[in-house]
Amino acid sequence: MSGTESPAARLQALFEGHRLTPTQRRIAHSMVRRAVDVPFLSSVELAELAGVSQPSVTRFAVALGFDGYPALRRHLREVAPSAEPPPETGSYNEYQQAVEAEIENLRHLAEALGDAGPVRRAGRVLADSRPLPVLGLRAAAAQAHGFAYFAAKVHPDVRLLNEGGTMLHDRIDAAARAGASALLCFALPRHPREVVDALAHAKETGLTVVTVADSPFAPVAKVSDLLLPAAVGTGLAFDTACAPMLLGRVLLEAMCDDLPDAQARLEEFDAKAAARGLFVD
Prior knowledge:
The protein is an alpha/beta fold. The protein is built from 12 helices and 5 strands. Helix 10 links the parallel strand 3 and strand 4 (208-213). The protein is globular, with a radius of gyration of 21 Å.
């Protein structure tokens, strides 16, 4: 692994090629989310961070080919020799800690976007799809709605799928019959089973599945053609999703780059909005 890689990228490279159980994927996701801190965490601290048992952390290290967690932690310190213990956050209250964690998630996203290739590929795939179905259920419904709202200003046919149930597959089928070539999904924890089933169905119909998810180890990874990860914050009673939301806007920008009439559509909307007095600012 290259010394120029980010801590999160080094960890993801370490996990690649290993068949991990759901519990082990949860540990892996927690490690990526706290990549800078992990070399300094004990097995007990990592278990608490991931919400698993300490023996699960030991089994996870063995599954990666190490004698135990101390050997894994020693390896992480060796591949990041310049790493220093994270600063103390004891002076922060719980709300500040949640904000600091989200800032760290955004830093990881910025590092990941250093390779813009995946986002640009996804933008091309989405721009070429007519119509473009956008899926997001439960916790991810707001992300899907936000993307679809703005995408509809530049894309000629956006279809929001933010309600589950027996008609979900029907609506995917209808989009495919109408000429859709791709589907965009926002998938956040806890991951509804019907989202995984819907993506599997979309692939069966021939759609290319692009997914924004909280982790490269999320359950939707196996039914996605292109997965773009952005971590969620877990420090409050309900997860926060600043990084997935921002990644959605970045993906929207990439899609606009491949829609030749995107600027003209935006100018047309602005002119009509001004004529109607739609906004007060």
